[in-house]
Amino acid sequence: MMKDEIKKACEVMQKGGVILYPTDTVWGIGCDATNEEAVKRVYEIKQRSDSKAMLVLVDSPVKVDFYVQDVPSVAWDLIELTTKPLTVIYDGARNLAPNLLAEDGSVGIRVTNEEFSKQLCFRFRKAIVSTSANISGQPAPAVFSEISEEIKQAVDYVVDYRREETGHPKPSSIIKLGRTGEVKVIRE
């Protein structure tokens, strides 16, 4: 079942579509992170201004290098040693849709280790947008049953996998890494 879901989600994203899917944290709205039109649709669905950057998921640390010009060496240790989901904000983003980036050219990237989102990123072969499945300003739904009908109707495909889960996963920790390796904790 998971394989079929991943195949369908990839087909939708390859055509510029937007999906609703489970991640290593909360349910996310996702799309091809290199497709400016798809990214624009995610902002519209969330009713959020595109001056607020969104993060992306990748399936391996190797991919971080493709989307960031100069990865500070401390990043590799942080990615390897973290025991819970960690989003790292890097300066000098590249190879991503311009409207996905923060005004300073930075981007948040998380290497996912959760089975579904990791396989989805691996099969899609590109970074995937991951933003909480809610209208901007409303609480982020922790589980599928908390996602509003408005969000479910607005996307092109809703993944079936893990819909029945009831646990309350936490959002990722977020840190910002400066070019020289300085670390700023944004969210613990």
User: Can you name the CATH architecture?
Assistant: Alpha-Beta Complex
Q: DSSP strand (E) fraction?
A: 15-25%
Give the strand line-up of the largest sheet.
Answer: 7-1-2-6-3-5-4-8-9
**CATH homology superfamily:** DHBP synthase
Count of spatially separate domains? 1
The unreliable regions are none
Characterization of this structure:
This protein is 30% helix and 20% strand. The protein is α/β, with parallel strands linked by helices and 188 residues long. It has a single domain, classed as DHBP synthase. A 9-stranded mixed beta sheet has the order 7-1-2-6-3-5-4-8-9, with helices on both faces. Helix 1 crosses helix 5. The mean pLDDT is 94.
Layout: helices, strands, pairs:
Elements: H1 2-14, E1 19-21, E2 28-30, H2 36-46, E3 55-58, H3 61-67, H4 73-81, E4 86-90, E5 107-111, H5 115-124, E6 128-132, H6 149-154, E7 157-158, E8 173-177, E9 183-187
Parallel strand pairs: 1-7, 3-5, 4-8
Antiparallel strand pairs: 1-2, 2-6, 3-6, 4-5, 8-9
Give the tags.
20% strand; 188 residues; 6 helices; nine-stranded mixed beta sheet; DHBP synthase; single chain; alpha/beta
Could you give a short description of this structure?
With 188 residues, the protein is α/β, with parallel strands linked by helices. Helices cover 30% and strands 20% of the residues.
